[in-house]
Amino acid sequence: MKVHFAHKTDEWETPQPFFDDLDKEFGFTLDVCASEANHKCKWYFSMQDCGLARNWEHSTCWMNPPYSQLRAWMKKASESAKRGATVVCLIPSRTDTIAWHTYVWDAERHAPRPGVQIRFVKGRLKFGGSKNSAPFPSAVVIFRGP
Predict the structure, then answer these.
(1) How many domains does the chain have?
(2) Ordered DSSP codes for 29-86
(3) C-alpha 20, offset from chain centre
(4) Which of 9, 65, 109, 128 could disulfide-link to 73, CB 3.0 to 4.6 Å?
(5) Would you state the torsion angle of the CA atoms of residues 46, 76, 25, 44, taken in this order, to the nearest 10 degrees?
(6) Which structural domain, as residue segments, surrounds residue 24?
(7) Are 58 and 84 in contact (CB under 8 A)?
(8) Are 80 and 61 in contact (CB under 8 A)?
(9) Do the Cβ atoms of 113 and 85 come closer than 8 Å?
(10) Which residues neighbour 63 within 8 Å (Cβ) at sequence distance 6 or greater?
(11) 4 located within any domain
């Protein structure tokens, strides 16, 4: 299990073709957690900008968060959607985690929470800068506002 949570960095670039397909569908306006080297949108928040503290409302957001801080980023995505943002998140498909059950899955209804869509990624993604595919499955979780 250690390999699933081991990391030397939290800055893994989303594969460009994978992002491009989603961008065609959603038309992203803001990359909420990026760097100069890996941002996918013209407008982005870097670590120095502290995207967790910024306003995402009324934006169509791309989010490939630092997985070591996944719960905080999922909370922000959920809250931002309630205030009018659409947030498309690329996250590990760790359906046994607190973050998954708190922000994605409604355990009482045995279904995704209202306003949340889940798309499981077929196969394993190969993130930019990596020689190998990820050691875990991924999911795209979409938070849509009212």
Answers:
(1) 1
(2) -EESS--TTT--SSSB--TTTTGGGS--TT-EEEE---GGGHHHHHHHHHHHHHTT-E
(3) 15
(4) 65
(5) -10
(6) 14-144
(7) yes
(8) yes
(9) no
(10) 31, 32, 33, 73, 77, 87, 88, 89, 90
(11) no
Q: What is the pTM of this model?
A: 0.88
β-bridge partners, 116: 143
> Tell me, what amino acid is at 35?
S
Q: Are 72 and 89 in contact, with CB atoms under 8 Å apart?
A: no
What pLDDT digit, counting tens, does each position of 21-48 carry? Answer: 999 999 999 999 999 989 999 999 998 8
- How many CA atoms, within 13 angstroms, populate the side-chain half-sphere of residue 58? 0
Rounded to the nearest 5°, which phi and psi values hold at 77? -60, -45
Cα angle value 46/39/53 (rounded, 5°): 30
Q: Is 74 within a domain?
A: yes
Euclidean distance between the first and final Cα of the chain, in Å? 38
For residues 86 and 28, give the distance between their C-alpha atoms in angstroms, rounded to a whole number: 9
Q: What is the CATH number of the domain that holds 114?
A: 3.40.50
- In tens, the pLDDT along 69-80 reads 999 999 999 999
**Half-sphere exposure of 13 toward its Cβ, with a 13 Å CA cutoff?**
15
In a domain, 7, yes or no: no
